Amino acid sequence: MAFRGDDRVGDDGDAGAVRQTRSGAVLTVTLDRPARRNSLSHDMVDDLVTLFTAAATDDSLRAVHLTGGGGDFCAGADWVATNNNDGRRPRTGDLTRRIPHTANRLVELITTVQLPVVCSVRGWAAGLGCNLALAADFTVAGTDATLWEPFVDRGFSPDSGATWLLPRLAGVTRAKRMLLLGEKVSGAEAADWGLIHQATAPEDVDAATEDLLARLASGPTVAIGLAKQAINYGLHASLTQSMNHELASLELSCRTKDFKEGLAAFRDRRDPDFQGR
């Protein structure tokens, strides 16, 4: 599936919608439910899984931008709506059957798709919304944005990768502050902790994001994707395993047109003109 133009996925009603916009080789995916701080309905999560799955196999794409409409990025899963069963108890095992194919699958796709994913955050990034920002390769947030893992404050344990992402990005102590104490972290603090790529003045978020997307979209797409995959593989592998994985990726990247262009540019003392091939 190739993305063309401006399109919406899902309904425009209370369930919210996911909007996709294509600009050159960059796909922008916008959470469009500003009246609910872009909290994610079941349909929106399903649509995001569909979009990222399609993006993974679209050879014309070179970067993905994930953002929220209005003044917030994402207030997390809409637990009020998703737990409204008209008084009926869900079937036993409902969460363990459903979430691996919805929220968990979305986080996996963002971390494994062989395209750089850039997230821009304003206002709230809470729960699943926070984890989406942490899962992205690069997140640019306003200094006054708020990252929050509100699970314990709501009486249940973390999900959607929070206990994996936070300790690796910020360390165990800070992860416990967010996950066990429910501490809120500003965009400025998140950048200082290493949770996100950059914090800027709120009015500069768009410009910083666009600059980053332009840089990534003009890079050697195959090599970037393989490097991203190798980094994630190395998080649970030994040094020897990681180096063997690097060799397999190197064998592939050295056969691309961008590799030849990179060598030619080095030889000619000019900037490379990578085509993502």
Can you offer a commentary on this structure?
By secondary structure, the protein is α/β, with parallel strands linked by helices. Helices cover 43% and strands 16% of the residues. The chain is built from twelve helices and ten strands. The strands form two sheets. Strands 1-2-3-4-5-7-10 form a seven-stranded mixed beta sheet, with helices on both faces. The protein has a three-stranded mixed beta sheet with strand order 6-8-9. It is globular, with a radius of gyration of 19 Å. The two termini are 18 Å apart.
Helix content: 40-55%
Distance between the termini: 18 Å
Helix/strand order: EEEHEHHHEEHEEHHEHEHHHH
Strand content: 15-25%
Task: Summarize the main sheet.
Answer: 7 strands, mixed
The pLDDT mean sits at 90
Regions with pLDDT < 50 over 5+ consecutive residues?
Answer: 1-5
Structural class: alpha/beta
Shape: globular
Structural descriptors:
277 residues; alpha/beta; 7-stranded mixed beta sheet; 3-stranded mixed beta sheet; 12 helices; 43% helix
Q: Helices and strands in order, then pairings?
A:
Layout: E1 6-9, E2 17-23, E3 26-32, H1 42-56, E4 63-68, H2 79-82, H3 94-98, H4 103-112, E5 117-121, E6 124-126, H5 128-135, E7 138-142, E8 146-148, H6 162-170, H7 172-179, E9 185-186, H8 187-193, E10 198-200, H9 205-217, H10 221-234, H11 239-253, H12 257-268
Parallel strand pairs: 3-4, 4-5, 5-7, 6-8, 7-10
Antiparallel strand pairs: 1-2, 2-3, 8-9
